[in-house]
Amino acid sequence: MTQAQKRNSLKADRFTESVSREMTRVALQYSAVNLAQGFPDFPCPPQLKRAACEAIETDLN
C-alpha cells in the first residue's frame, strides 16, 4: 500500500485542533505571554500523586 492509499480512521477524521495549540498560535501572533500551557515550578502535591496512582491501578480512564 502506498502512502497515498493510506487513510485515517473515521474516528481520527473527527479530531479537531486543540485549544492549547490555538492559544499558542494567537499568543505568538501578538507576541503575548502564553498562559494556556506550561510547566509548574513546584512539586506535585502528594494527595494528587496518590489519586493518580489509584486511578491507574483501578483502570479509571
UniProtKB/TrEMBL annotation:
Keywords for the protein's UniProt record, in alphabetical order: Aminotransferase, Transferase
InterPro entries: PyrdxlP-dep_Trfase, PyrdxlP-dep_Trfase_major, PyrdxlP-dep_Trfase_small
Gene3D superfamilies (alphabetical): Aspartate Aminotransferase, domain 1, Type I PLP-dependent aspartate aminotransferase-like (Major domain)
Transmembrane segments: none
Superkingdom, natural source: Bacteria
GO molecular function, one term: transaminase activity
Protein name: Aminotransferase, class I and II
